[in-house]
Specification:
This protein is mainly beta. The chain contains no helices and eleven strands. The chain has strands at 3-7, 10-13, 18-25, 32-39, 46-52, 58-60, 68-73, 78-83, 92-100, 112-113, 117-122. The strands form two sheets. Strands 2, 4, 5, 6, 9, 10 and 11 form a seven-stranded mixed β-sheet that branches. A four-stranded antiparallel β-sheet has the order 1-3-8-7, with no helix packed on it. The relative contact order is 0.32. The model has no long low-confidence stretch (mean pLDDT 94).
């Protein structure tokens, strides 16, 4: 079982930055894949980035490469999503997710989810 709590969402103007945090409560934090997803109104949920806590290996969606960075602080069982050069197209509810074992390149397989945090980017 993994419990996830996100924080750090908010409103920002285009070109700005935000950092999301996801704290994970699990007995096996060292060997889980943590990911970030987003869902805008009327759109399907999209995988954004993932990181395997054991190796720090990361995957990113093409839409955020070069702008978003996923990182971890194993001492705090926390994963971060640093979002730079934000555009209105990044506006969405952002969800933290987790699964035991390595991440998959297509950002699939997650079975634990947080409650979400809203990110709004204005033009």
């Amino acid at each position: 079982q993994v419990q996830l709590v996100e924080s750090g969402g908010g409103s920002v103007q285009a070109g700005g930055s935000l950092r999301l945090s996801c704290a994970a409560a699990t007995y096996a934090y060292i060997s889980i894949c943590m990911g970030w997803f987003r869902q805008a109104p009327g759109k399907e949920r999209e995988g954004v980035a993932s990181i395997y806590t054991h190796t720090s290996h990361t995957y990113y969606a093409d839409s955020v490469k070069g702008r978003f960075t996923i990182s971890e602080d194993n001492a705090k069982n926390t994963v971060y999503l640093q979002m730079n050069s934000l555009t209105p197209e990044d506006t969405a509810m952002y969800y933290c997710a987790a699964m035991y074992g390595p991440c998959t390149p297509n950002l699939s397989g997650f079975n634990y989810w947080g409650q979400g945090t809203q990110v709004t980017v204005s033009s």
